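cache lookup: miss for this entity combination. No prior model stored, computing from scratch. Input as submitted by user K.M.:
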Amino acid sequence: MPQALITGGSAGLGRALAAGLAADDWDVVITGRDRDRVHSAASELGPRVAAVAGDVTDEAHRSALAGRFRDGLDLLVNNASTLGGPLRPVLHSSDDGLRQVWETNVVAPMALVRTLRPLLRPGAAIIDISSDAAVEHFETWGAYAASKAALDHLTLTLAAEDLDVRWWAIDPGDMRTQMHQEAFPGEDITDRPLPESVVPAFLALLAGRPPSGRYRAAQLAPAFPGA
Ligand SMILES: NC(=O)c1ccc[n+]([C@@H]2O[C@H](COP(=O)([O-])OP(=O)(O)OC[C@H]3O[C@@H](n4cnc5c(N)ncnc54)[C@H](OP(=O)(O)O)[C@@H]3O)[C@@H](O)[C@H]2O)c1
């Protein structure tokens, strides 16, 4: 069976993707810092999904993940991410605040890519979860947006450097999740689609295997209807 690793798979998009991949006959490992939550998610998602609790910024956790895939890995989804607390104007940001967001959203996924690259099987793919914030300039979103722009850039540079792997940066679009609620505190976000709604686009991506590049989930499902 193909093997996938999804960072931050205990909630939101990561959890929805784990469910979608498991239903498509993938074996999936999900991660998350909250041990109880990630283990509950894995047992609710069924026997194809296993949990490894930990923080992507922790090198020991990343090594433990590599240990799970000694027999090879077909898909890494760098999904775990942080807004870095309440959104604020760039001039009100702190050095530590910027470092924390970029450590989680840029440094950790690239470290995981380096750690896992030798374990990738022929035909493997990396999906780095992007955002519309990577290409737009929204007031107060600067730290997070810059992290996603950097992640996009690194993904596409890897695509130019390492032709044996598919490198995809995917903007999933707005989704009704904890992170989205944290970005809009006190707002009613029930008009945003659930993360499950974008899973078919990811399955279409994996089935259609378009060239490495940056895609919006919204453009994938109709373009690769074979999934
Ligand atoms: N929601 C949106 O509207 C939206 C829009 C565009 C892009 N995105 C992107 O989509 C991805 C998923 O977001 P989401 O909305 O699904 O978020 P979410 O519901 O808040 O879920 C985040 C997941 O990541 C885990 N996580 C967070 N920090 C982690 C860390 N340092 N190490 C390991 N796991 C960590 C969380 O578990 P723990 O807290 O237990 O660690 C949880 O499982 C992110 O990359 C986000 O930037 C979201």
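stored under new cache key. The chain has a mean pLDDT of 96.
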